[in-house]
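User: I'm putting together a teaching handout on how multi-component assemblies are represented. Below are the sequence lines for each component of a complex, exactly as they appear in our records. Could you produce the 3D structure of the whole assembly as structure tokens, so the students can see both representations side by side? Please keep the chain order the same as the input.
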Amino acid sequence: MTNQELLWKYAEGNCSPAETTAVEKLLASDQSLQTELDSILEVQSALMTMEVEAPSLRFTQNVLDALPEIYPSEVVEPLVKPIWKKAFWLAVAALIIGMILMPHSASPTESVLSSYIDQVMGGFNQAVGQVPNVVLQYFVLTLLSVGLLMLMDKIFMKKGHGVLMV
Amino acid sequence: MEQDNLLIKKTLGGDKSAFGTLVEQYQGYVFSVTMKVLKNREEAEEAAQDSFVKAYRALASFEQRSKFGTWLYQIAWRTAIDRYRSRPRISQSLDDDYSFMQVADSEATPEQQLQQQNTRSVIQRALGQMKANDAALLTLYYLNEQSVKEIAEITGLTESNVKVKLFRLRDTLKSVLTKNLKGEEKSLI
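Assistant: Of course. Below is the structure of the complete assembly, with chains in the same order as your input.
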């Protein structure tokens, strides 16, 4: 290894202890080598402060736009399967209809149509009346839970994270 | 490195935004390499973009034996060198020797400027006039902080060849700097 190579190695801090001692001896005995080392350190420090070149601001977007569709997204199971979603909406509809009909069930009516509605409402009222309150409460609670799960599905699917079915 | 691996995993799972994070992380370094080779902003940006798209396509084959950065710089290096070689050979005569690296007095930094700034600007100019792959080699070593071994992997050169080249290039830069300083001294006298 030439003195020059050794000096570069020394400047970079890559010398072994033996090499470091040798370089330091050389530097002490030869003033020109010290001058040489100074200019090496100058180049070294200039190279160390080399700046990163910045591409245009749209660079990342341009790359993303140019990417082909080769890695398909993982298939994510929704928390609520479509059939249960249908059941949920049916139950909600039944509940709403029931709530609308119940207050009118006792009102007196005169027309044929009104008396028919009265009969239907009476029947509905009777049917609901026979269901224990606890069952109704559970029914509403189940509906709320399913609704919440459906909402979570919607949020996570939109963000692209997906919620894996446990 | 672990974060890179996680982002790669997410990308392979179809999450493009994870690859976007990798692009943001490495774009400066990749662009610096392509810029040093091609010395033209527009072309360098296209080459850098191509490099990322190529990396994305080949991501499934990345075996993580080396760092993601090293693998990516290898792609960027090849892409830039291929582009450079496909250019019409007009500016090639500039690369034949380093005599052009002598900086003219008229371009010298004003006396009152700090010595360090002067050195940096001389080195930058010299790098700008170096052979395409030589300047990129120094960039990989100093800016991208790649080891000799990694540079050998990126460029396809042997480790000893990289060491020799780095030594010669830095020595040339030192000579340029010395000549430039001497030129300045003369102009001051």
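A couple of points students might notice: Residues 90-110 of chain B have pLDDT under 50 and may be disordered. Chain B touches chain A at residues 11-17, 19-20, 23-24, 27-29, 31-32, 35, 44-45, 48-49, 52-53, 56-57, 59-60, 116, 119-120, 122-124, 127, 138-139, 142-143, 167, 170-171, 173-174, 177-178 (CB under 8 Å).
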